[in-house]
């Protein structure tokens, strides 16, 4: 009788174990499906990563942290962080949330990424902070792979690939392989930065006192407005007369522009600058109400829009 009972016990234990494993497996199935990318998508991420290392790393950094100060050992890169989570950028400060689960966010991110990568950002040339346009240099598939990588890739993977592929740490690897001796080790110290760094800018100091308004008064402008990050104007109503000037200031962070379609006004406010641009209302502008807004994708929709009232000249 012992043998039969033992067998029964073994079968029971086996069944319970199997049931447990199955339950856990089924319970976790939705997660697994979410985080699993198709083979096609994995390939897109690999290709996007290689393109990133070749074209973007020099300004946006090996881990996509760019010039973000937080959590970044290397904040001298020119470009902003594309790895928003890694850089600790609060969600409410993101103009577009690059790695979101939400369909609306994803659509905005996809449009913005395509727009920015294809057109670049004609930023302030004096600061040498120009994001080049890649719309002609890269083909449609390459652009799609890059955007897909930024939206769905893993920045740790990018970083590891970058370490493998760039010469920056090849010297380190050789030096380590030679137990810390030989010419490679000297090279680590000497190696010049492989990327352009932000030049010191002294002249931003005076503009930095948050002063759209001040700047406007000093310069005799009839009105002033300042861009604010992520996407707002300091005022949503501006009243002027034909021939008046409006002092428009940059936010000091993101790029914006001041656009009034009917008057043909379209002035860039470069990233990283609080400089004030003087915009003159044409003498022959018809009195009435116009819309002023920022034409960077997503900004107008986020509320970066206001009313420009032109009163009759007295
Ligand atoms: Cu804007």
**What order do the strands of the largest sheet run in, or round the barrel if closed?**
2-1-4-7
Q: Could you tell me the number of beta strands?
A: 9
By CATH, the topology of the largest domain is Cytochrome Bc1 Complex, Chain D, domain 2
Return the domain count: 2
Rg over CA atoms, rounded to whole Å, is: 27 Å
Instruction: Identify the CATH architecture of the largest domain.
Output: Orthogonal Bundle
- Helix-strand pattern: HHHHHHHHHEEEEEEEEE
- Uncertain runs are 29-34, 189-217
Question: Taking all residues together, what is the mean pLDDT?
Answer: 79
Classify the secondary structure makeup into a structural class: alpha/beta
CATH superfamily of the largest domain: Cytochrome c-like domain
Largest sheet features: 4 strands, mixed
| Top CATH class of the largest domain | Mainly Alpha
Total of helices: 9
Coarse morphology? elongated
The helix content is 25-40%
User: What ligand molecules are bound, each kind once?
Assistant: copper (II) ion
What does this structure look like?
The protein is α/β, with parallel strands linked by helices and 314 residues long. The chain folds into 2 domains: 39-190, Cytochrome c-like domain (Cytochrome Bc1 Complex, Chain D, domain 2); 204-310, Sandwich (Immunoglobulin-like), CATH 2.60.40.420. Helix content is 39%, strand content 14%. The chain contains 9 helices and 9 strands. It has helices at 2-35, 39-60, 103-119, 140-152, 155-165, 170-177, 183-190, 204-207, 212-218; strands at 223-228, 232-233, 237-240, 245-249, 256-260, 265-269, 276-280, 288-293, 305-310. The strands form 3 sheets. The chain has a 4-stranded mixed sheet with strand order 2-1-4-7. It has a 3-stranded mixed sheet with strand order 3-9-8, with no helix packed on it. It has a two-stranded antiparallel ribbon with strand order 5-6. Helix 3 (103-119) packs across helix 4 and helix 6 (170-177) packs antiparallel against helix 7. The longest helix has 34 residues, at 2-35. The radius of gyration is 27 Å and the shape is elongated. Bound molecules: copper (II) ion. The site of copper (II) ion has 7 residues, from loops. The site of copper (II) ion (CU) has 7 residues, from loops.
